[in-house]
Each structure stands twice: as C-alpha cells, then as structure tokens.
Amino acid sequence: MSRLKTCCHFIGLCALGFAANAEMHVHGQGQLLLAQDGEKWQLEFILPAADVLGFEHEPETPEQVRQLKTVAQRFTQIESIIHLNGDCKLEHGDYELPYQDHHEKGEHDESHSNEAREHNDIEVTYLFDCGSPVTEVRIQVFNWATSLERINAKWFHDKGQGMAQVTPQQPLLAW
Ligand SMILES: [Zn+2]
C-alpha cells in the first residue's frame, strides 16, 4: 500500500513513477495504472510475457513466431484489451513486445543463445480521449491471456485515487 504514489499532474510523470515502482515480476500477475488528466485517460499495463505470449524466450518454433504476431495484433485491437464505458476514443497506443526484432537483426547475431532465459514483461500504454466521464473499466485481456490470474490496478483520477485487484471472475473496475 505504501507504494501508492501521490498523484502528479502530468500523466507522463505518473507513468514514470509507476514504472519506477513496478512490482516484482510474478507469473499470472499483471499491473495496470490508470491516470486521468482532464479528458485524457492514460492506461499502462505491465504483463508477464509468460502470460501474454506463453513463453519468455526468443521464439523457437513457428507456433511461437505466430503467437508473437497474434499478440501484436491483439494489442492494436483495443477491445481485446480493455473497454472504457465513457465516450472514449483511442488516441494512441504503444506497446513493446520482446523478441520481435529477432529476425531483423540477422542470423549473425550470436548473442541470442546466451541472452535469454530471463524474465520479460510486456508494457502497453494507451491514451484515450473521453468526452464523457469514465466510471467503469472492463479488463478484456483475461479473455485470451488465460494464465493471467489477476491484475493489480491503481488509478488516479478526478474523483480520487485507489487500487484494486481485477481477476478473470471480476474483471471490472468501477468508481
Ligand atoms: Zn517470467
């Protein structure tokens, strides 16, 4: 609880503070920060690659390469990830998947055999412009990241700040 930061006015700073305070990497558990700045809502997910991709290493099989592409696509389809109940329009989405530049780097890259077997998180950030109040957020990522057991969510918005756990059984944040 002491990790809950006092809110800052700049959404970017909130996000930075959040990243710096990121909790430990635990499989099955993700994190979500929501921050409001007027009509702008920023959402930042940190999810273990093991839950999102099903693996935490360079893709080794055609299935894993495919999985990487499928997940990259899901992150661009906002309804696969999250639903806000306000009159919201996605302005910007940003995600970074590990292992993606694997093939572009070329075959001479010898490091990848030594590199890996490390844990990896996937960070995804969305910026929404909402013309009406957001009072409910549904986490949809549970629908396909089935090993994800919970997401620890924190929010900072006009009505205050708080934290809650969302789970596949209870994927709704409301205030
Ligand atoms: Zn891991």
Description:
The chain is globular. The longest helix has 15 residues, at 62-76. It is 19% helix and 35% strand. It has one domain (23-98, 114-174). A hairpin with a 2-residue loop joins strand 7 (150-157) and strand 8. The protein has four helices and nine strands. Residues 1-10 and 103-116 have low confidence and may be disordered. The chain is of the alpha+beta class and 175 residues long.
The biggest sheet amounts to: 6 strands, mixed
Count of folded domains: 1
Give the distance, in angstroms, between the N- and C-terminal Cα atoms: 19 Å
> Numbering strands along the chain, what is their spatial order in the largest sheet?
4-5-2-1-7-8
Describe the structure using short key phrases.
single chain, 175 residues, alpha+beta, 6-stranded mixed sheet, 3-stranded antiparallel sheet, 4 helices, 9 strands, disordered N terminus, binds zinc ion
A few lines on this structure:
This protein is of the alpha+beta class and 175 residues long. The protein has four helices and nine strands; from the N terminus they run αββααββαβββββ.
Topology overview:
Blueprint: H1 11-20, E1 29-37, E2 40-48, H2 49-52, H3 62-76, E3 82-84, E4 88-96, H4 112-115, E5 121-130, E6 136-139, E7 150-157, E8 160-166, E9 172-174
Parallel strand pairs: 1-7
Antiparallel strand pairs: 1-2, 2-5, 3-6, 4-5, 6-9, 7-8
The site of zinc ion has 6 residues, from loops.
